[in-house]
Design brief:
mainly beta, 208 residues, 38% strand
Length: 208
């Protein structure tokens, strides 16, 4: 007798091509959850998100895949940056187990398109969660000239001789320039600490 394979009915809630990607938004808690199925009858699900005026760090977690048809449960997630839909920016492959991909850095005022692709004749149900953290980026002090124009001045404290300055540099914020008002002549020691990657500090002497 013939064997009949059945698939649990799944509503295809997302576009199938890069050009017609479904536009989605992060919720009030900066989270976005996408759940659907890809594979036989629905090769890909495509959605996109727009990053507003703040550069962001995004963590992407994929729940354990659910088999609707077949045994080889694998999905590939292709991510495209901006309007360039011909070149994959990043690609991730998930096989059966849950995975977390952290430290994805998204540029401000840029759209990101996600293409979730199934494998062959299998049918795979997936759930992807994106968690976004806006980065505190200040570009008003990226150069010495900007620091002077925008009044980025640090004054030595009246009590004690230690001045502590903390900030962020890197993706979206190439440099921080601060001007230290020298209260008096003397010997100054500069200490760069608690950095998570290679960082260079340069001290310039500016005379009126």
């Amino acid at each position: 007798s013939d064997t009949v394979e059945t698939i649990s009915p799944v509503v295809d809630g997302y576009a199938d091509t890069l050009q017609s990607a479904t536009a989605l938004k992060f919720d009030a808690n900066n989270r976005l959850v996408v759940a659907d199925a890809v594979g036989r009858g629905d090769k890909a699900d495509v959605f996109k998100v727009d990053i507003s005026d703040k550069t962001a760090a995004v963590s992407m977690s994929v729940n354990e895949l659910t088999a609707l048809l077949g045994n080889n449960q694998t999905i590939r997630i292709n991510v495209y940056e901006g309007n360039n839909l011909t070149k994959v920016w990043k690609s991730f492959t998930v096989k059966n187990e849950a995975r977390v991909f952290s430290d994805l850095l998204f540029k401000a005022n840029t759209s990101y398109t996600f293409e979730v692709v199934g494998s062959g004749d299998n049918a795979t149900q997936f759930e992807i969660t994106l968690d976004k953290t806006d980065l505190a980026i200040d570009n008003s002090d990226d150069t010495l000239a900007l620091a002077q124009t925008n009044g980025k001045v640090l004054a030595m404290p009246t009590a004690g001789n230690t001045l502590i300055y903390k900030d962020f540099v890197g993706f979206g914020d190439s440099a921080d320039c601060q001007i230290i008002e020298q209260a008096a002549s003397g010997e100054y020691t500069f200490n760069l600490s608690n950095v998570s990657a290679n960082t260079v500090m340069t001290v310039y002497e500016v005379q009126d």
